[in-house]
Amino acid sequence: MVVFVVEQKIRDIDPRFSLTSYDVKLSRLIAPGLTSVDTKNSEPRLELAQSIHKITDLKWRVLLRDNLRFSDGTVLTAHDVAFTFQSVMDPATKSLYRKGFIDRFVSVKAIDDNQVEFHLKQPLATLLSDLDFGIISKNNMAQNHVIGAGPYQLESRNQDVVVFQSNPYYYGQTPKTKKVMFRFVQDTNARLLVLVGGDADITQNSVRLDLLSSVKMQSDLKITSSNSSILTYLMMNNHDPILSNPKVRQAIAYSIDRKRIIQTKLHGYASEATGLLPAMHWAYNGNVAGYNYNPQLAQQLLDEAGYPYGEGKKLRFTLNYKTSSNPFRRSIAQVIAEQLQLVGIKVDIRSYEFGVFFDDIKQGNFQLASMQTATITEPDYYYAYFHSERIPTSKNPGLMNRWKYSNTKLDDLVSQARQMSNRKQRIKLYGEVQQILATDLPIIPLWHEDNIAVSRLNIHGYQLLPNARFYGLISTYKSAL
Fold first, then answer.
1. What CATH code would you report for 32-149?
2. pTM, whole model, 2 decimals?
3. Residue 261 and residue 259: Cα distance in Å, rounded?
4. Interstrand relation of 477-478 and 459-460 (parallel, antiparallel or unpaired)
5. How far apart are CA 30 and CA 169, in angstroms?
6. Angle at 347 between CA 344 and CA 349, to 5 degrees
């Protein structure tokens, strides 16, 4: 058995109710979708589906693989697929994903045992990614014991431990490890100690970067890293009197020595970002304006923006910078503040418990703030993050254009791209989107922090994915020390 340490409690592995990233990761091991974005470039691949065909712009048909079975041995049919989607759309289910589904689908119907038809409300470029949603059996709905057709099935669970065993009916590669225990350990130092002591075998993205030097000193542990699709960024309130000027935003970008921060604070475990998407993403465009460290150019831009040094003054203006109370994130904010001070921008850092901090962000109560995105697999995130209709309001504070950016040309491009199924045309449109954002710079993309696995030396075959899911457990095995 492989013991996998996690930093959050596992709450619900039913894909209809999985909310946290850990819940989703575990749910997909039990119940995969028709497609999967567990790929190196985030391009969806077929999973339970054998083929997906567009009948019209509003009608798509999915043919299932042959001989699919749930972990209880029953046959997986198109009726189970239809049930899964219909259940999410049913208000009585109270699924967290209902709104997203009813915004996309008119209906989902089984044509026969092997084919299911999706009727869309409007052309939907994101459909293949959207079909990465766990399919569950319509015949077995025992609470906390969802039946799926993935490589693993639930064996047992309690408040702190979830145990999976391999699914003998899985259509794909048989997992090399028959049992996996996911063990919740809250404290980051404790997580490292259970690995050192041999009470656990592996963890992913749960050891602080400043502790990795200690890991390297442990003869029984090893570190594996790979690129991720999560962006760390500096958000700027584009309605702020100072930050509304693009030259000020560009000057701030030129003032941040990202290479130095990556080396000194992140210990090299990150890659510089040019925008929302990482370089390995299928829609990435690297031919955009860049902001390598250049404090001289930053000062020139600030002068041009109307913020020269006053006579006898050492500062141009002051900005508030909000961050969470996490010591590591606060330390990065302090480095950025020191770098901005060198070009005449004073920064007052204000750190808060995350709930308080995030409430301020949602209300637009900030000038500067640093955060990380969700896992970026689908470029439609450009719509969510940057379309002017996605600026939060009092009625809908959960919208994600929290920097209040507005550009009519970009609005048009992202609206077109999200309704276009032709991949080459989408790449072209998103390439232009990335160029506009690199110039307007409503946020400053900082870096993509690596996915990092810390494991004992006798753990082999674990593969890291950009979306940080746990599909790599299928090829993982444990040898004798």
1. 3.90.76.10
2. 0.90
3. 6
4. antiparallel
5. 12
6. 165
Domain covering 1-9+154-220+457-481: architecture = 3-Layer(aba) Sandwich (3.40)
Residue closest to 327 by CA, chosen among 193, 210, 447: 210
Bridge partners of residue 36, in order along the sequence: 45
Contact (Cβ atoms closer than 8 angstroms) between residue 392 and residue 399:
yes
CATH 3.10.105.10 fits 232-449, yes or no: yes
Which SS3 state, helix, strand or coil, does residue 449 take? strand
CA 12 from centre of chain? 19
Q: Where are the domains of the chain?
A: 1-9+154-220+457-481, 32-149, 232-449
Residue type, 190: A
Per-residue pLDDT tens listing for the chain (481 residues)? 999 999 999 999 999 999 888 999 999 999 999 999 999 999 999 999 999 999 999 999 999 999 999 999 999 999 999 999 999 999 999 998 999 999 999 999 999 999 999 999 999 999 999 999 999 999 866 555 789 999 999 999 998 999 999 999 999 999 999 999 999 999 888 999 999 999 999 999 999 888 888 899 999 999 999 999 999 999 999 999 999 999 999 999 999 999 999 999 999 999 999 999 999 999 999 999 999 999 999 999 999 999 998 777 789 999 999 999 988 999 999 999 999 999 999 999 999 999 999 999 989 999 999 999 988 999 999 999 999 999 998 888 889 999 999 999 999 999 999 999 899 999 999 999 999 999 999 999 999 999 999 999 999 999 999 999 999 999 999 998 7
C-alpha 186/C-alpha 206 separation (Å) is 10
Q: Supply φ then ψ for residue 88, to 5 degrees.
A: -65, -40
Residue 35's contacts (CB-CB under 8 Å, 6 or more residues apart) are 44, 45, 46, 47, 49, 52, 128, 129, 131, 132
d(CA 205, CA 224): 11
Amino acid sitting at position 219: S
